[in-house]
User: Fold these one by one.
Assistant:
Number 1:
Amino acid sequence: MRPDDIIPTYERVARGFARSRDRTLFERPWLDRALNYAPGRKVLDLGCGPGKPIASYLADRRCDVTGVDAAGSMLVLFRENLPRERAVHADMRGLELGETFDLILAWNSMFHLSADDQRGMFGTFAAHANPRTVLMFTSGPNAGEATGTVDGATVYHASLDPEEYRGLMAESGFNEIAFVPEDPQCQGHSVWLAQYRGATV
């Protein structure tokens, strides 16, 4: 399994993924924490998928959500589930929306990219950040590659070393707020939370 297979895989399994996606909102404590730090309610959801439960929860919290996904079949579902929110069919890699957001999410999405592509994402995050923008993403607990399954299809995962993520955030202007590897309160997800301080000179 290669990272290049991710988009076509999610194109095929979008509805199966949406049916099987855990909707207990185990992510809620992290989402609430991120919102508490965010300076506003304008949200960029990278790899938004069908929009439930995360984008729906944020919309219910009076957020203005822009969902971005490279799989068009996922965006069909996103639009069905959140007709009032904006959906953008685009690859998160090299994204250039020409605007900034108060909260940038890459929940269970950036870790499908190769290590090099993940490194490149931090410039993309910074390009869409304003002072005090909050960044939240998930990774693996340690550097390495792995495979998982989505609706019976094999998918690629990769992670950098936590210290490398810290260095990339610092270089791109983000201060770490928290990192909890394999958080037992979040179904074992390794979660990062950071806030933009501005570009370094």
Number 2:
Amino acid sequence: MSNFGQQLRQIRQQQGYGLNEFAKELGVSPAYLSNLETGKTQTIQLDILSKLQEQLHLSVNENVPVDDQFIFRLDRLKRLLAELHCSNPRVAEYLVAMAEQGIDLINPAKGSGI
């Protein structure tokens, strides 16, 4: 986790965020963010990881279990589609329909049923 923390600090600083400012954007205390960056905190909640990825354009760490990565990506995709639906519902509907059609093609027995 300390390697992750070091990378997090480096990217945060490269993008011009101060510790206090970035902690506020993430909704965590500066102490928590500092502990995360120094490796003193060994756990991170998926919602905080999601915010980190969004704010700093990070990719999910290879050390995160595959199931957690998939759930993280689904949660992020759901949020992004909901935001897109607010600004451009036709495009959001199109993307969802394409995903559903693709799943139906690969696994027609289970179909979307929608």
